[in-house]
Amino acid sequence: MNILITGGAGYIGTELVFELSQRPDIDNIVVYDNLSRGNYNLFLGKGPRQSNVKFIHGDILDSRSIRKALKGIDVVYHLAAKVTTPFANIDSHFFEQINHWGTAELVYAIEESDIEKFIFTSSASIYGSSNIPATEDTPPNPSSFYGVSKQRAEEHVKRIFESVPTLILRCGNVYGYSKSMRFDAVINRFMFDANFGHRVTITGSGTQSRSFIHINKVTKMLAGLLHVEVPSGIYNLSDKNLEVVDIIDVLKRIYPDLEYLFINQHITLQELKVDPNSRLYNYLQLPASDLEAELLDFKERFSFQST
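Above: the chain's sequence. Below: its structure in token form.
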């Protein structure tokens, strides 16, 4: 089996490459990435099984390069995206170009290929802001440029539901250690600040809720979908809804000397809850874990702790 992963050198992509490279039933993994985030960690240190991983330095908007990369590929994971959290609302042009039209170019190319399965990581942000937990039946109502671009990307992907087994996964906020780290995600940022600064800053009241899922769970689910027959469709990929103060409570147990500072408490921030009972879990079970254990493991990944 031959796999193509767009955005394969990114935060989730790096972990997925490591996971899939250990599987004996996979012949080749092609990492397709333009390295726009400047993160080269996939290529350094102890890497995946090197004999079956190849790299193409290509842009998702380059239709000619995409079509060439798809030759001989069986399964495509489309992870490439411009991502900024939380609820990005800047640089609308770049979100639209990469997330929307980049996905469109990939779908056009897939329609002309022999791909057997297509898995697209969308975002729960397309639901917008709501206190009622969103399900797959909740109408999209994105409130950010990022969410809008993901919704428009989904419209292109839906077009191939009937011709290619295709899964759209609306992911919650992903957190946890990856060799290719992102520290703009809220839990990851809190962990960095707590470990090296002993203080975290909370914007607003801290009672706003968001949907979260650990990167290891995302990776395991993505890899597991290779050999599980799931009908083409839209599925949420989320684990738990947490208020910011819930995260702080766990951090205080891990870092007893932690200080936390509230700023702009008069601002009411939008929140988004996702029903954790995704239809996807009827086909593939979400691995069990708890937040404190996940963050303790994260802490062990730091090279040192400031005193």
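The chain has a mean pLDDT of 93.
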